[in-house]
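Suppose a colleague, Dr. K., hands you the sequence of a protein chain of 207 amino acids and asks what its three-dimensional shape might be. Before reaching for any lab equipment, you can write down a predicted structure in token form. Begin with the sequence itself:
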Amino acid sequence: MTDAPDHAARDALLDAALDLAAEHGWRSVSAADVVSRAGSDLKALGGCGPFRARLLGALAERTDRKMRDGLDDDARDTSLPVRDRLFEALMARLDALSEHRAGTLAMLRGVPFDPPSAVAAIPLLGRSMARTLQAVGESPLPPFGPLKVKGLSWVWLATLRAWTKDDSSDMSVTMKALDTALARAEEAANSFLPGGRRRASPSAPEG
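The predicted structure, expressed as tokens, is then:
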């Protein structure tokens, strides 16, 4: 329980950063403004390096944590199709991002134009997708894990693009995009991974 105050202070910093991003854009988010808005010590953020890159890493870790916390027993049941489990996990990630949708959208728009953030985003994406696989009982380790991480990264990015444009109340557009991307990734996995055809999800189209 000794780390609870640190979690609270970090969350305050991250919430303030997202609020400021929504108001002024990601590249305008500064350490001084975040500390002033949050009323928390910057040391709670942790990490090292450029400030917004550190923010990005902390935001990714928080999303990973909320994703894991949001999963039910079915999402961890390896007897169920992996496609179904990954659908639940990625939707749990989106639920976490939706808590600060405006700030997250500003961050996604700004990261490609902020070199330190853009450089940090690449390994963070792979790490988060590896953690997503682990959360549903799939290994991200060699020999086939790295391929799964790359495939899931493509699925996640395709889904994020749909989410940024989805103004439906039930995220129906996003869910359709996610289901389509997972189906394509599954088809590719069935073609390239040994035994893939035998492991195909029962929900996958038969042809």
